[in-house]
Design goal:
586 residues; alpha/beta; FAD/NAD(P)-binding domain; Glucose Oxidase, domain 3; 15 helices; binds flavin-adenine dinucleotide; GMC oxidoreductase; oxidoreductase activity, acting on CH-OH group of donors; GMC_OxRdtase; FAD
């Protein structure tokens, strides 16, 4: 019954797949939906998209708040534990998206493209074609900007809707803005190449004008596209790619012939599907390397230990795993400034549900980080005060200005901690580490493709990362202080005992968590790089002729930003390369 039903959709069952497609896209997440849409624009090409999760598109999966991982029923999240993290003293929960749309159907919808200097440094380091100027057209290609004024650095005809809101839904954010204005530069629009890349800025979200989540699934593969391309675009859900089937070309190089796919139901069949042109892996930074390892592509020693036949010795597969780390702080604030009010006052829940259903506004939009601070740890004093900021620091093309820390204010904090008054509002000023120098790794736990991989994120393994994280906590304390100075009633419930290193470290151990921004396990770099790469500048797997990777695993390092906008741009750019490459062969 509406609104909980799933609309019928033109997916193709595993047993009805064709024997061969021009392109096979494995993983229908953030990047995979982009590839499926763009590669099937050519009516002469056939495309198969294989996704292990479902294609559910019910009302609850479209409401941003109820579909976000933390507030959802968990059906579209794949949750497991990392290995024991030495510096944190425990394992950390890893989360990725499951089902068409992947992470974009459970994420926080925060849309940030990152600092221009970051992409210019990719290009300077030999990644030709990946500078800011060369990537920017693809950010724009994916986007339809719904913000009030027209800004030429946004896109206006892309499938993905990006929204911004006037004012704040949570009053606590007005107090944060006031505090920020006293000490930090203002970033008017974080996507403007003339605005600084450090300072505070209002958030932009992947949402449409009616307040629905714009996931890559809804944006790129709406029912009209699936229906009109049903003869050439086959989307198969509940289907797990078990391994890639390789062969040798006449010249001895390696090519992928096809993919072995298994249904996720216990009684399901397994089929082999051939690829005429290319296979594109889009399984995300944790599953793409797992699939490569299961298929015999990876570090020889690990493959031999696991009794996997070595097809290609590729030492970079699964190496260089990175993620952003966030530390959760807690304060009490006025009840009605916090989303917690919806839990303790049913009338607030009813009011917000009404606002959402009637006007597409309010707390159900799930705009939990309405404003964010991107900053440099080198500008934070030991007592948290911000050093004077010179004009030079405002240039977003200067690599020294790529932010290394962030503060994510939140209208919710952990109600379970001792000292939190549950009849008041709960609020957090959560510091995060954006520039990560520690590197972890991913290995096979078993040969079962349904099993989770072994992930060692190696958080805070370098002194630089520990120092940077401490500076982020100090800045968060300074913002709280400035909010209180201006008369906002914030009361600490869980924060570090002091700003001394030892107290900060103890607090980080207790309260650090993943931001779920896994990346760089199949990085774009030469094979003989000191940190060996897995794909070349065209995202083709080194040593193969027709296998590419397009997802967050190819980032040279975890970018100093929320990654989804970059995944969209990378996917658009690679789709463009593939289409041009194949049309020039005609
Ligand atoms: C809870 C959460 C909140 C986040 N919040 C934000 C945010 O607010 N803003 C932001 O920018 N970023 C956010 N991120 C990160 C961002 O969403 C991801 O980094 C990005 O979307 C990853 O895209 P991807 O294409 O690499 O992988 P995914 O989107 O994970 O896609 C991979 C897909 O492949 C499928 N798959 C995997 N293995 C197989 C297989 N063997 N066979 C078939 N299918 C397979 C998976 O089911 C999945 O659908 C968040 C992430 C999470 C988990």
């Amino acid at each position: 019954m509406w609104p909980f039903t799933t609309a019928p959709s033109p997916f193709v069952a595993l047993e009805d797949l064709s024997a061969e497609y021009d392109f096979i896209v494995v993983g229908g997440g953030n990047a995979g939906c982009v590839l499926a849409r763009r590669l099937s624009e050519d009516p002469s090409k056939t495309v198969l998209l294989v996704e292990r999760g479902d294609g559910d598109d019910s009302w609850l999966t479209r409401v941003p708040l109820t579909s976000t991982y933390q507030f959802s029923d968990g059906k579209h999240s794949n949750v497991f534990s990392s290995v024991y993290e030495e510096r944190i003293g425990r394992s950390v929960t890893s989360v990725t998206g499951l089902g068409l749309g992947g992470c974009t159907r459970i994420n926080g919808c925060q849309y940030t493209c990152g600092a221009p200097a970051e992409f210019d440094s990719w290009s300077r380091d030999g990644r030709h074609g990946w500078s800011y100027a060369e990537l920017k057209p693809f950010f724009k290609k994916s986007e339809t900007w719904l913000g009030r004024d027209r800004r030429e650095y946004h896109g206006y005809s892309g499938p993905l809707y990006v929204e911004s809101y006037e004012g704040y839904y949570f009053k606590s954010f007005e107090a944060v803005e006031k505090a920020c204005r006293r000490i930090l530069p203002t970033i008017e629009d974080m996507h403007s190449p003339t605005d600084p890349s450090i300072g505070w800025c209002k958030m932009q979200y992947t949402m449409d004008s009616s307040g629905c989540r714009s996931s890559s699934y809804r944006a790129y593969l709406p029912m009209e596209i699936l229906a009109s391309r049903k003869d050439r675009l086959h989307v198969c859900t509940g289907a797990l790619a078990r391994k890639l089937v390789f062969d040798r070309n006449g010249d001895g190089s390696t090519c992928v012939r096809g993919v072995e796919i298994q249904g996720t139901n216990s009684d399901s069949v397994s089929v082999n599907v051939r690829a005429k042109c290319e296979v594109i892996l889009c399984c995300g930074a944790l599953r793409t390397p797992q699939l490569l390892l299961l298929s015999g592509v990876g570090p020889r020693k690990h493959l031999q230990e696991m009794n996997v036949n070595v097809v290609l010795d590729s030492p970079g597969v699964g190496e260089h795993l990175q993620d952003h780390l966030i530390v959760l702080t807690g304060y009490n604030c006025p009840l009605f400034d916090s989303i917690w009010a919806m839990i303790v006052r049913p009338t607030v829940l009813i009011r917000e549900l009404y606002n959402y259903l009637r006007y597409g506004t309010g707390w159900f939009l799930g705009t939990l980080v309405e404003l964010e601070i991107f900053f440099l740890s080198s500008l934070v004093e030991k007592d948290g005060r911000v050093k004077p900021i010179s004009k030079e620091r405002e240039d977003p093309f200067n690599p020294e200005n790529i932010p290394d820390i962030a503060i994510l204010p939140s209208p919710l904090s952990d109600p379970r901690v001792e000292g939190a008054n549950k009849w008041k509002g709960l609020f957090g000023l959560n510091p995060a580490l954006l520039k990560v120098t520690s590197r972890g790794s991913l290995r096979l736990r078993s040969l079962d493709p349904k099993d989770t991989p072994l992930c060692n994120l190696n958080y805070l393994n370098t002194p630089e990362d520990r120092n940077t994280m401490r500076a982020a906590l100090r800045l968060s304390a300074e913002i709280a202080r400035k909010m209180c100075d201006a008369g906002y009633p914030l009361k600490e419930t869980y924060v570090p005992k002091s700003l001394e290193d030892a107290d900060l470290d103890a607090f980080i151990q207790e309260r650090a968590d993943s931001m779920y921004h896994y990346s760089s396990t199949c990085r774009m770099a030469p094979l003989d790089d000191p940190l060996p790469g897995v794909v070349d500048n065209d995202l083709r797997v080194h040593g193969t002729t027709n296998l590419r990777i397009v997802d967050a695993s190819i980032f040279p390092a975890v970018p100093a930003t929320h990654p989804q906008a970059l995944v969209y741009a990378v996917a658009e750019k690679c789709a463009d390369m593939i289409v041009k490459g194949h049309s020039s062969k005609k």
